[in-house]
Amino acid sequence: MNILIIGASRGIGRVLLEEALKEDHRLRVLARNPEKVTINDPRLSVVQGDVRDRESVLGAAQGQDLVCSCIGVPITFNKVDLFSIGAANLIAAAKANPGQKLIAVTGIGAGDSRGHGGFLYDKIFQPLLLSTIYADKDIEEQIIKASDVPWLIVRPAGLTNGPRTGTYRILTDLRGVTAKRISRRDVADFILGQAANPTQFGKTPLLTY
Known about the structure:
The chain has helices at residues 11-22, 54-61, 82-96, 119-129, 131-145, 184-196, and strands at 2-6, 26-31, 44-48, 66-69, 101-105, 151-156, 158-160, 169-171, 181-183, 206-208. By secondary structure, the protein is an alpha/beta fold. The strands form two sheets. The protein has an eight-stranded mixed beta sheet, with helices on both faces. A two-stranded parallel ribbon has the order 7-9. Helix 1 (11-22) packs across helix 6 (184-196), helix 2 crosses helix 3 and helix 3 (82-96) packs parallel to helix 5 (131-145).
């Protein structure tokens, strides 16, 4: 499968790149700083560009079966618009490539997963440190859900550097749920599983142990 990953220099995107190569996918990465993508593999090409720039996204997405957005920003108190601008560009790219699927990683606290992260996260960490980030992630989700492209929004619980186990909960009914943790490699496992067998598209599953 031809997969474009945006945000592959670190975090979930980096791990997704590693795990996708293990499964022999053909990978393309869109990166503002290509030198930060330090993996060398004949099945991988790295394209310089920015998810904020529509032409960059359209060019990188051409010919791809699946686009995975794993973008992120450091903690900030300033207004954030990376996620919403990126979402609009990714939707435009998917429309230009009929049949192309879009998977976007947001996180616990986006949309109706707000309030399911546990007391410290819900009452202290998210409102004090992540409010501007998640305000834009909410807009990102709204843009994606309003589109008519094949989409899946992934909301991981608190992330760890643990192994790929393949054993975790995929939750769309959050009544009574308090998210725990999940490894980045198990988030990658879920994404690659959905690439092969798309059972959760059109949904916003929360991933947690």
